[in-house]
Specification:
Mean pLDDT of chain A: 84
Largest sheet of chain A: none
Largest interface: A-B, 52 and 64 residues
Shape of chain B: globular
Oligomer: heterodimer
Helix content of chain B: 25-40%
Structural class of chain B: alpha+beta
Radius of gyration of chain A: 24 Å
Shape of chain A: globular
Structural class of chain A: mainly alpha
């Protein structure tokens, strides 16, 4: 097991190095530069821009810039943003809690919806409940988050005027009001993301339960006189969850991807909106850091999924 | 009105027979107002009045929170590093300049005790120096006094190239600054400076404290903790800043203007997009103020009907215009397209340029596309009114274009496209991707087709088109097509900087890595001479005449075709009072005076 872990970790190093090289090259080849707003401002002399480019090393050849990035990354120095001149790690750490809060809540919401609905659908396949759940699930994962986000804003903020559509990370209220305000503003982004994931997760759950419920050991459990509830929770759902858990782990990077769009729409100050703003401003160090974190996340969640699978299903062994 | 009449009016003001306000109003009537009317009075020996616009009286504090929304998020809070107006505006909550420009164009003292003028001896007759007297009893948010040392330090800080300050353009004409006493500084310029308020005034004039920045001058500038935690003299003190997200401030109890500010807290939230920002103010009322409403006027009007807020429109000098290439974009010389060694094969014929000028239907473009947010114009300089030429007019006339081209010998071929000596009238017309611009392109293309000119439309993503990447052919300074369209911004109430877009030494070329400010590559000795003369002309009337001449040269030679000038638009809640925008400074220029009705 530990040998397996070590091997997997070691093989991920060249993978990440490759990813970073590709990312860096693409970013360098992409048009635009971080001082474009200065270029169109008549009051900023061209020398200022040239000076800044030279100072931030933008005029150096690409391999040199990449080498410099790798070396400083190894030393734990993520560089600083060209736009805000703030260290990249500070920027990311500042936004991480918000992203984790929104994504975490969305994931919890998705699980809370998907597991009961998926299970119940599988218990009564092709019933009216199942048909309705299936239809809604299909609608749910066909609609992209940016579209549902806008729909929610139009309905709940503008038409009904119930919920704010601009997210604020620091609310000045205290006590219960603070919690209430946080919940109120998080409802829409969390619902948009959560429902989107819940849709596909419901389908996985339904399929997994359907697979398990027909197996002999379920009949055995019933035959030895266990109540239907205990059979369901202890024997069916528990085993059905094995593939679902791995899928959830594999999906985590996707969730971050979906969050980029949602964060932009609701002005949630998270990693996703940082990425979008940095891409628009051609702020290479930040874009590089955030995309690199995302790729690490993909590699790590793949590994986590493999390990989880083995832990949940002891029949699987690692060599 | 000629120079003599003007002199007589000025005498009347001096003699007290005509009020200052009346004078400015007369100038407005003559199309001569804005900052320069005030500057005229100043230079002609009339004392500058104090704050002229009237505001509701308030007491300090008790106003609760004011919430503002910028759809571009501020990324830093050091005014000398500001990448764009968003950063300048965020810094302005905490920092102040010596003086600013109000909507009438008066210089309004902020940290200065008074605005320098010829009469009070502040402005030297030869334009080589200006003396600022600073307001006493101003303290920084940390309690330290604001003195002349701070002013001198700002100049030194900016001029140190290691600091990499973007405001250097405003300060490099200063030869030296002498501290006359603890609250007086004398700026000496390298050459006569008619626009002496370029430094220390307006959005690039904010003063940062010496005692907190002196250790971080030059190469260490990035490490200053105060880059992100500003300590200024402004109406609000720093509370919290998350780059790219939110800035918060609280009432400054030691603010130097009595009974101000009214609000206890201020919040500037950033990010998102312009239409939803407009909604948050006009429709849901979640926010009190939103910046830069780049939203179609039709939509703004619809949302305004809700009665919660209004679009506030204030004139500035930004102009959407079509540039005509003087050089040949399709021939490469020494690895460079649009090289000044070439001449455009068809646009070099003045008749073609004149024809194009009457083929741009500015009336329809204003009516159908921009509404209140883009006004059809015949001029390149559209504000301040004093510099606006009265000698030009625009028209839309396809028949006239046909006549001009017929007369010049451009004959229609079998395909309906005109040609002469085997050269066809075919143009590529580029602009950035932006819905109103694509609609404008269509309107121009349709008219051109009627006149036998074939126009191919090209649109480029904004962050390529407006970038300064020397390796990318699609940027506007490369100008690798025949025609191109964009808005050029005028951030100062003085057109000197603005008009350098046509001087011969600013031609964008491979040599200067396309950083030159003149993309049309037009070169004209008469224009160059007028520009240089204006740079040193201390007589405001003669100077205005020079700028009008420059504008007319550009328009008569059809170097560019002005389309619409773009006023600034903000969304303001109807509950807000005294939120006055000025076309010559950031949205927060008079933040201290904002208040809210109960």
């Amino acid at each position: 097991m530990s040998k397996y872990l070590l091997r997997r970790t070691l093989t991920s190093i060249p993978v990440l190095a490759g990813i970073s090289a590709v990312l860096f090259t693409i970013l360098a080849l992409a048009p635009g530069d971080p001082f474009e707003e200065l270029a169109t401002n008549p009051n900023v002399p061209a020398e200022v821009r040239m000076n800044l480019r030279a100072k931030f090393g933008l005029d150096d050849p690409l391999p040199l810039r990449y080498a410099r990035w790798v070396v400083s990354m190894m030393r734990g120095d993520w560089g600083f943003s060209f736009v805000s001149r703030v260290n990249v790690d500070t920027l990311i750490l500042q936004r991480l809690p918000t992203t984790l809060f929104v994504l975490g809540s969305a994931l919890v919401l998705a699980i809370l919806i998907a597991i009961p609905i998926g299970t119940y659908s599988a218990l009564r396949p092709y019933s009216i409940f199942d048909q309705a759940a299936t239809t809604l699930a299909f609608i749910g994962f066909s609609l992209p988050t940016f579209f549902t986000g806008l729909l929610f804003i139009l309905l709940f903020s503008i038409h009904l005027d119930w919920l704010p559509f601009i997210y604020r990370a620091d609310i000045s209220a205290t006590g219960w009001r603070w919690y209430w305000e946080h919940v109120r503003q998080a409802i829409m982004p969390v619902a948009v993301l959560g429902l989107f994931q819940a849709a596909s997760m419901t389908r996985f759950m339904r399929a997994a339960v359907l697979d398990v419920i027909r197996l002999e050991y379920v009949n055995t459990a019933r035959a030895k006189g266990l109540s239907e509830g205990v059979t369901l929770v202890k024997h069916v759902v528990r085993n059905a969850l094995i593939p679902v858990v791995t899928l959830v782990a594999l999906q985590i990077p996707n969730i971050f991807g979906g969050a980029i769009v949602t964060e932009q729409i609701f002005r949630v100050p998270g990693i996703g909106s940082l990425l979008i703003a940095s891409i628009l401003a051609n702020d290479t160090p930040v874009v590089m850091a955030v995309t690199f974190i995302f790729s690490c996340l993909v590699v790590a969640s793949n590994l986590a999924a493999d390990l989880l699978y083995g832990w949940l299903d002891p029949r699987i062994s690692y060599r | 009105m000629d120079e003599r009449d003007l002199q007589r009016l000025l005498d009347e003001v001096k003699g007290g027979r005509l009020s200052r306000r009346r004078f400015v109003q007369t100038m407005v009537g003559l199309g001569l107002t804005a900052p320069m009317a005030a500057h005229m009075l100043g230079s002609a020996g009339v004392a500058q009045a104090q704050t002229k616009w009237t505001v509701n009286p308030t007491k300090r504090g008790g106003g609760g929170i004011v919430k503002t929304l910028w759809w571009q998020a501020p990324t830093l809070l050091n005014p000398h590093f500001a990448n764009g107006t968003k950063d300048q505006d965020a810094s302005r909550i905490f920092y102040e300049p010596l003086a600013s420009y109000d909507p009438d164009g008066n210089l309004v003292p902020m940290l200065a005790a008074e605005v320098p003028s010829a009469q009070n001896g502040g402005v030297a007759k030869d334009g080589l120096s200006v003396t600022w007297r600073l307001k006493k009893n101003v303290v920084w948010h940390d309690g330290k006094p604001f003195t002349a040392d701070d002013v001198v330090f700002n100049w030194e800080y900016v001029m140190d190239t290691g600091t990499a300050a973007v405001t250097i353009g405003q300060y490099r004409d200063i030869a030296k600054i002498d501290k006359l006493d603890s609250h007086t500084v004398k700026l000496t310029f390298k050459s006569p400076s008619p626009f002496w308020s370029a430094s220390f005034c307006g959005p690039t004039g904010m003063i940062i404290p010496k005692h907190l920045f002196q250790a971080f001058k030059g190469d260490k500038s990035r490490e200053a903790p105060t880059n992100l935690k500003p300590v200024g003299t402004g109406p609000y003190r720093f509370v919290d800043f998350k780059p790219g997200d939110i800035v918060r401030g609280e009432l400054n109890p030691t603010y130097h203007v009595p009974n101000r500010p009214y609000f206890d807290q201020i919040e500037m939230k950033g990010g998102g997009d312009a239409p939803s920002a407009a909604r948050a103010v006009l429709q849901t009322g979640e926010f009190d103020y939103a910046w830069n409403m780049q939203v179609e006027d039709e939509i703004l009007r619809r949302w305004e009907q809700g009665g919660r807020g209004r679009a506030d429109i204030v004139a500035g000098g930004n102009i959407e215009h079509i540039q005509l290439n003087t050089t040949d974009p399709w021939t490469e010389v020494d690895g460079e397209r649009s090289s000044i060694k070439t001449k455009h094969p068809t646009l070099s014929d003045p008749a073609v340029r004149l024809a194009l000028n009457v083929l741009v239907d500015r009336g329809s473009i204003q009516e159908e596309i921009y509404g209140r947010t883009g006004i059809a114009t015949a001029n390149f300089v559209n504000a301040p009114a004093r510099f606006v030429s009265k000698n030009t007019k625009w028209e839309f006339n396809v028949d006239k274009a046909n006549q001009i081209l017929d007369a010049a010998g451009w004959k229609r071929g079998a395909d309906g496209i005109r040609a002469k000596d085997g050269r066809k009238l075919k143009f590529v017309y580029q602009t950035s991707i932006n819905a109103p611009r694509q609609k404008t392109q269509q309107i121009v293309k349709q008219a051109c087709t009627k006149a036998g000119i074939d126009v191919e439309l090209k649109s480029i993503t904004a962050n390529v088109f407006f970038s300064s990447d020397p390796a990318n052919l699609d940027t506007f300074p490369h100008f690798s097509t025949d025609l191109q369209m964009f808005t050029t911004t005028m951030t100062q109430p003085d057109p000197q900087r603005f008009m350098d877009q046509f001087v011969s030494w600013e031609v964008a070329s491979k040599e200067n890595k396309w950083a030159g400010r003149n993309p049309t590559r037009w070169r004209n000795e008469e224009y160059d001479r007028a520009w240089k003369a204006a740079e040193a002309e201390m007589d405001p009337v003669k100077r205005a005449a020079l700028f009008i001449k420059m504008n007319d040269l550009v328009i008569q030679n059809v170097v560019i075709i002005p389309v619409v000038f773009r006023p600034r638009v903000a969304a303001i809640s109807n509950r807000m009072r005294d939120v006055v925008q000025s076309g010559w400074d950031g949205d927060f220029w008079a933040l201290a005076y904002w208040s809210k009705s109960a």
